[in-house]
Amino acid sequence: RIAAGSKKLSWLLRHGAHEEGLKMDAAGWAPVRDVLALTKLGEDDLRQIVSENNKSRYQLDGKRVRASQGHSLSGTPVTQEALEASWETLDLGEQWVFHGTRADEDVLRSIGAAGLLPGERTHVHLADSPGSGVGKRANVGVLLEVSASALQRAGIGIFRSPHGAVLAPTVP
After folding, report:
1. Three-class SS string for the chain?
2. Beta bridge partners of 144
3. What pTM value is reported for the model?
4. Confidence bin at 106 (pLDDT 50/70/90)
5. d(CA 138, CA 58)
């Protein structure tokens, strides 16, 4: 029951708010009572999912809950600006950040031509170390190194969500 509830919660808060009629603010916060009604979870179940999520994906703040990151642009009222205002702005200096992707020629050719784009999401997910489990896909075949200082020189903000993912709106 908890696993199914966690999956429903993730979809609702990251992708399905519009479809389900869930009201949330531009930073992704939604009323707990509305989330409980739509997911059919109890308050204890919700607290357990938030505290035990292996990706630390959620935040619970009294009467509000949200997914920390990973929102689709079309499924929620979340905006890039509101999320960034709720995250830590990073100044990483000369540090490198990393993006894991599939070892697929078409994917790599696309990245070489257009850079890393968020697609239907608000941000590109990065990791602050090659061994980090946060901010990388599970099926990483290629690990790309990204110069944080080059992003910052280009005026591209780098952020850390509350669960530790490093995010940027784009990586040229």
Report:
1. CHHHHHHHHHHHHHHHHHHHCCCCCCCCCEEHHHHHHHHCCCHHHHHHHHHHCCCCCEEEECCEEEECCCCECCCCCCCHHHHHHHCEECCCCCCEEEEEECCCHHHHHHHHHHCECCCCECCEEEECCCCCCCCCCCCCCEEEEEEHHHHHHCCCCCEECCCCCEEECCEC
2. 99
3. 0.85
4. very high
5. 19
